Amino acid sequence: MRRTLTPEEWTEVSQRIQDPALTLAQRAALRLRLFLERETISRDMAERIPARRTLEAFPDIYAPGEKERLTAGRYVHEQGRVCNISSDWDGVLRNGLLPRRAVCTPESAQCIDATLAYADRYCDADLSRALREGAQTFPEALKALRILHFCLWASNVYHNTLGRFDQYMLPYYRADVEAGRLSEDEALSWIEELFLSFNRDSDLYQGMQQGDNGQSLMLGGCDSEGDCAVNELTWLCLTASMNNRRIDPKINIRVNKSTPPELFVRCTELTRLGLGFPQYSNDDVVIPGLIDLGYSLKDARDYTVAACWEFIIPGVAMDIPNIGAVSLAGAVDSAIRMKLIESPDYETLFQSVCAELRRRADELESSIQPLWIEPAPFQSVLMADPTHDVSEGARYNNYGIHGTGLASAVDQLAAVRRVVFENQTYTARAFLGALANQFECAPELKSLLRSDTPKLGRDPECESVADTLLDAFANAWEGRRNERNGVFRPGTGSAMYYLWHASELGALADGHMPGEPLSANFSPSLLLSDAGPLSVVRTFARPGVRRVINGGPLTLELSDTVFRNDDALAKTAQLVRMFILLGGHQMQLNAVSRQALLDAQTKPDQYRQLIVRVWGWSGHFVQLDKSYQDQIIQRTGYTL
Fold first, then answer.
1. DSSP designation for 517
2. What residues make up the domain containing 360?
């Protein structure tokens, strides 16, 4: 049963946590201890996986107005807390918390003591020993992971990803199977229960919308030697997710040219259920791209994803993979409006685009410093080096920059090249005049731009434009260092900016109108309605993504009729594999019915369990803001 603190309890706890004599790190540690002490041990008799949150809210470490005073003149990213990183789950499960307690800060030690005291209240001797000294069996490792993950949420950090689950859990599974302690079916049952546990409190852990909670899990890929790491747990996790049909954990899978074709089929079976995952990442592109950014080969081979799709390294990275975004569509629009008339040719105009991208990079870089990050003593415990607070940095301290509206940016440039420079259908002055009055005096131009000028995903001439624009985006950030001596990682993801940046735009040179959303991530324009998925997949396997490797998937909405039988299922799996073999870096698919989505907007009570992929996470469709619902409906319709 959930409960709220009484007013008297709230006042008493607030006064203790917000004691001005304590440092923020001390307050954070004390807050976790008081939170866990006040948690009620609530457990269904049939549950084997512990931890169920009962406190709906708890005081913050700041007194009223204190955070505003402390952060004045500083850049506060999101909530100003550590988020979107992946812990050293392998090391902490293998060795337990006590070795870390011997070397960590006093604040982190207090967090360890609070976690152990909380776990001991479950009266499970194996769990208590596993947390202290390391897990010895598969069930122990699962229970310990759940407790640690739960306490991370309780410690006020968020978007806590689960990393490469099938890699760090494999030794426990194999040891139990070889010793006869565990069968495959029993292991599947344990995994299913663990996965269900991440859905118990998901309504309390949300970001932009419910479901945006960062509980992502990675499967597959290669090992530290570069060999295929797909194993028994890879398959069991996919099966568990299929059986549970829940939005958490979000399944991601690493694939490459050597991935068994049957794994693509199994993943497509999961996609058919309409959960919006798995999301695919291509080792053959991502690993070299990360190495180019300065990650070691060993660390690059161990990559996972953050809450959505940004690439991070477990246990050793304090990267902030979503610190800001550049509107690529907006940059191109600005260059066209300011420089088209004085540009004698397309190449000159494109140099203005490059200059605008550099200007926007300068502006964004200066706006995100100096950075404020709240101490995170418990998250620090779970890093490979627990001796200092991770909020101060780790082995990698890179910043990720989203790039919004790539398809629209490309289509704008291709349209201007065609209409103004090549065919000279319109003069530069007439073209800009039409943009300024939103095509009211030139409806024929609007129709031409929306339907008949080149579009990325359909027309080959757009591909060279996309390549040069990706290079220009990468060049705008190359050589820069952030205040933590990390690099900037541009990427092709959009996150929620596909709506935010769209709201800042007027009419565009591709026919886009004010109020219309941009496409999500690395995807065709919503104006593209006459290209099939094969054309899109070929087009978006661009070699230039290696230089913009922060992450950002090709996102396709496939009609649910695509999955109608085994032959259709196999074709969809082949489509995904073709994208990987062509050099595509990331992909996510939605299996949707356009009519069901429309019906859900008018009869939400009948569609409470309808799940969709939003931008890098899955959520219940009827719980989304209407603007997100409408954008998803607009991008539906691909068939095979």
1. P
2. 320-531
Evaluate whether residue 190 is within a structural domain.
no
Residue 425 lies in a domain: yes
pLDDT score for 133? 98
131 inside domain:
no
| d(C-alpha 469, C-alpha 332), whole Å | 10
For 545, the token pair is 């993504």
Q: Give 86-141 pLDDT, tens digit per residue.
A: 999 999 999 999 999 999 999 999 999 999 999 999 999 999 999 999 999 999 99
Contact 305, 252 (CB under 8 A): yes
The two three-digit tokens of residue 19, written as one number: 């004691």
Cβ count within 10 A of residue 370: 8
- As a whole number of angstroms, the longest Cα–Cα distance in the chain is 79
Which residues make beta-bridge pairs with 76? 372
CA–CA distance, 612 with 212 (Å, rounded to integer): 12
Q: pLDDT tens digits for 448-488?
A: 999 999 999 999 999 999 999 999 999 999 999 999 999 99
**Pairing relationship of beta strands 399-404 and 320-327 according to DSSP bridges:** parallel
Question: What angle is formed at CA 330 by the lines to CA 329 and CA 335, rounded to 5 degrees?
Answer: 105
Crossing angle between the packed helical segments 170-178 and 184-197, to the nearest 10 degrees: 150
Indicate the number of domains in the chain: 1
Tell me the pairing of strands 488-490 and 554-559: unpaired
In this predicted structure, what is the pLDDT of residue 21? Answer: 98
Query: Three-class SS of residue 320?
Result: strand
Q: Using CA atoms, how far apart are residues 330 and 562, in angstroms rounded to an integer?
A: 35
Domain for residue 328, yes or no?
Answer: yes
- Distance, CA of 508 to CA of 529 (rounded, Å): 18
pTM flag (> 0.90)? yes
DSSP state of 487: B
**Which 3 state secondary structure label does DSSP give 396?**
strand
The tokens of 334 are what?
């600005």
